[in-house]
Amino acid sequence: MVLEEPHSSDLNQILNRLRAMIDSNDSQYQSRRFEAFGIEALRVEYDQLTGIWTIHEHREARQFQFDNIDLVAIEIYDVLHDFKLIF
User: Taxonomically, which superkingdom (predicted)?
Assistant: First the structure.
């Protein structure tokens, strides 16, 4: 019997993408899109110099800034979860 490793949770996948933004060396400013059902729900920007994260939520046309990766991941998770409930 072969045991499969458990799949990463949605929150872990979000954190992995955010950590990749921190580790990237190609630009001071990093930007990633987060989608649900092929529709962009939000965009996240990271300024490596200041360590500030900015979330641009499209549905509510809101913008948030954080200095903590965990808070960013939770906000992204919540926005995507709410977005999926609509559809």
Answer: Bacteria
Global pTM reads: 0.85
Phi, psi of 41 (to 5 degrees): -95, -35
Write down how long the chain is.
87
> How far is 83 from 80, CA to CA, in rounded Å?
5
Q: Judge contact between 44 and 29, C-beta under 8 A.
A: no
Structure tokens at 15: 């954190």
Q: What is the pLDDT of residues 42-52, one digit of tens each?
A: 999 999 999 99
* C-beta separation of 58 from 40 below 8 A: yes
**Which are the contacts of 77, defined by CB distance < 8 A and separation ≥ 6?**
10, 11, 14
